[in-house]
Design a protein that fits this description.
Elements: E1 2-7, E2 11-14, E3 17-20, E4 29-33, E5 39-47, E6 51-60, E7 63-68, E8 72-75, E9 78-81, H1 82-90, E10 96-98, H2 114-123, E11 129-133, H3 139-149, E12 153-155, E13 161-166, H4 180-189, E14 191-195, E15 198-204, H5 208-220, E16 225-230, E17 237-242, E18 248-266, E19 271-274, E20 277-279
Antiparallel strand pairs: 1-18, 2-3, 4-5, 4-19, 5-18, 6-7, 6-18, 8-9, 10-18, 11-13, 12-13, 14-15, 15-17, 16-17, 19-20
Helix pairs in contact: 2-3, 2-4, 4-5
Length: 288
């Protein structure tokens, strides 16, 4: 058996894709990296009630990585406690964190529904308005997105922005794993620029839940996010685009905070995939 202590805001990889830990049912199948390095699925035996713990959030090129401070992650050449990784990052020596690639993990995605995906994406926007640069010429596409989803909206665009306010009661908060369809909807409503290789999205740093689900949805689509934080000395926004997936990512900023965590107990030995980082199971000496 193995136990993982994971913040509720982290996304852990399951057989259905990335799933927010705070919404994870005990019936889900967790994906682990076995001691021999091969991925496998395993049965969850128990998920504890949430409890406040000391945690670390690492800002990296793959997005945010949420960890309990005593978690151990795989990095280039070593394994580090999350608190040590945070200290190294704060000192300007951000570790190279090993990542699992979504396309190498067991994954049986649920059937996607564009209407539900769009409503889930819209529920994460606060306030209830889509605002993208007018230069992207996204007016028709965004109108069609809302109309197909049956979401009432009003056009408040101006010369600089395409802006559509919508009725939040027409949206639904997604509690299951995000789909590839949701990735497309989230990209559409957070679009900032267009490049030959795809859409660049922009989220202010305080839009944590929206950004985290966008990053998870891109992983579910098999195109893990490439994230840049700006400005580097004190980020106020993140630029996100679909990537090809790197073996390692560098942590550039870190902070420690108290946050709700759960203990997930599984029947097999191995490491969990948390925000695509590889996290070792807790050992007996790690217990409170």
């Amino acid at each position: 058996m193995a136990t993982f202590r994971i913040p509720v805001d982290a996304y852990v990889w399951t057989s259905a894709g990335p799933w927010r830990v705070g919404d994870l049912p005990a019936t889900a199948k967790l994906v682990i990296i076995r001691p021999d390095g091969r991925p496998a699925t395993t049965t969850i035996q128990e998920v504890s009630p949430p409890a406040d713990r000391e945690t670390v959030v690492l800002l990296a090129g793959s997005g945010e990585i949420h960890l309990e401070v005593r978690s151990v992650i795989s990095t280039r050449g070593a394994q580090l406690f999350a608190t040590a990784a945070a200290s190294e990052t704060i000192a300007g020596r951000g570790p190279r964190i090993e990542l699992a690639h979504p396309q190498s993990l067991p994954y049986d995605p649920p059937d996607g529904d564009q209407v539900i995906a769009t409503r889930n994406a819209l529920a994460l926007l606060e306030p209830s308005v889509i605002r993208v640069p007018r230069r992207l010429q996204a007016d028709i596409r965004l109108r069609q997105l809302l109309e197909v989803a049956g979401v009432a909206f009003r056009d408040v665009s101006d010369d600089r922005w395409t802006a559509l306010t919508f009725n939040p009661t027409d949206t639904t908060v997604g509690t299951g794993p995000p789909s590839a369809q949701e990735a497309k909807a989230l990209q559409a409503v957070t679009a900032w620029a267009s490049r030959p290789d795809g859409t660049v999205c922009r989220t202010p740093t305080d839009q944590v839940r929206l950004r985290h689900r966008l990053v998870a949805a891109l992983a579910a689509a098999g195109t893990p996010a490439a994230v840049s934080w700006s400005p580097a000395y004190g980020p106020v926004e993140a630029r996100i685009c679909a990537g090809v997936g790197d073996v390692f990512t560098t942590a550039t900023r870190a902070r420690q905070l108290t946050a709700a965590c759960v203990d997930i107990q599984i029947e097999d030995e191995g490491s969990a995939v948390t925000d695509l980082a590889i996290v070792r199971a807790r050992r007996s000496r790690d217990e409170d």
